[in-house]
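Box 3.1 A note on notation
Throughout this textbook, protein chains are presented in two layers. The first layer is the amino acid sequence; the second is a token string describing backbone geometry. Keep the layers aligned when reading.
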Amino acid sequence: MAQKLALIARAHANRGDLDLAAAEARRALEIDTLTTEAHLLLGLVYLRQNQLTAAARQFERARYLDAESPLVAYHLAETYRQLQQNDLALREYRNALRRLTRRPPDALIDGVAVSWLIATCQRLRDNATERSTRQRGVNPFYYLF
């Protein structure tokens, strides 16, 4: 039942009804707190509503339930990036890349090509690395030698 509610919540989110999507995802979690899809969807809703701390909390729960999901790692990295927690974002981009490279590049994950996700994670990882080194005051050329 919880999984069905999570699917209904996804349908509401796909139509742009985020409040109803969040309500259905919460109902799914009331039935079964271990419904990864509901945590992921609730995190996406919070992310779209710019509730970054709440989004991170939901993505962390989803990661706990499905540690091998590249999408959870990607969304968590994006949330950490927006929270300006660059070291955590960098870690999650690396986790996403590690999980994505195990899949064929032409495979789809929730309708998104693995090759696109890999390229995006690599670009964002590189940006996070640069921000992280600037925050620490480390010369980025230090790593080249």
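The mean pLDDT is 91. The chain has two domains: 1-66, 67-134.
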